[in-house]
Design brief:
Largest sheet: 2 strands, antiparallel
Helix content: 55-70%
CATH class: Mainly Alpha
Radius of gyration: 16 Å
Distance between the termini: 22 Å
Shape: globular
CATH architecture: Up-down Bundle
Oligomer: single chain
Number of strands: 2
Strand content: 5-15%
Order of helices and strands: HHHHHEEHH
């Protein structure tokens, strides 16, 4: 039996969004326990030219909802990037989960050959659904989840590999 586009996308995205939510809960508790203002973590970045934690979470959300929508052939929801607190970031993750979990397997049938066109600053990029999922969306998604994790770990939040992977 082959792996479907649905199996390779929606459950994977949902799981990692849940893991990121749990990591953010640990970060919020860590900030409180250490007497650190939450904005210290939310505005923290790994390098001066990288986005801060809040933007990393927004991009994770955008990538997940964009991937699900494009593969399903539906409009990508547009949400303002205004989150500045752990509570708002958690709400964004919950809204993203609700959206992607509303996509069913039937909507992704045949999406491996569906043309996906992204409008980038440098121009349009065209992919097959399979190329988009495996070569663009998932690597981008994991990059930003990993960067959010690394920002928090770098700032002393007690998270480890199993927090990133979730219950295996």
């Amino acid at each position: 039996m082959s792996l479907s586009m649905y199996e390779a996308s929606i459950p994977v995205l949902a799981r990692m969004l849940g893991n990121l939510s749990n990591i953010l809960k640990k970060a919020e508790a860590n900030a409180q326990a250490r007497g650190i203002g939450p904005k210290v973590f939310i505005e923290s970045r790994l390098a001066p030219d990288m986005f801060p934690l809040a933007r990393q979470v927004q991009i994770v959300s955008d990538t997940a909802k964009g991937c699900a929508a494009r593969l399903a052939g539906v409009d990508v929801p547009s949400w303002a990037d205004t989150e500045t607190s752990f509570e708002e970031l958690q709400a964004r993750i919950a809204k993203t989960l609700a959206f992607i979990e509303g996509i069913d397997a039937a909507q992704l049938e045949g999406s491996e050959t569906r043309t996906v066109v992204l409008k980038m600053r440098s121009g349009e990029i065209s992919f097959s659904g399979r190329e988009y999922l495996l070569g663009f969306a998932m690597p981008n998604f994991y990059f930003h989840v990993t960067t959010a994790y690394a920002i928090l770990r770098h700032n002393g939040v007690d998270v480890g590999k199993m927090d990133f992977l979730g219950g295996v």
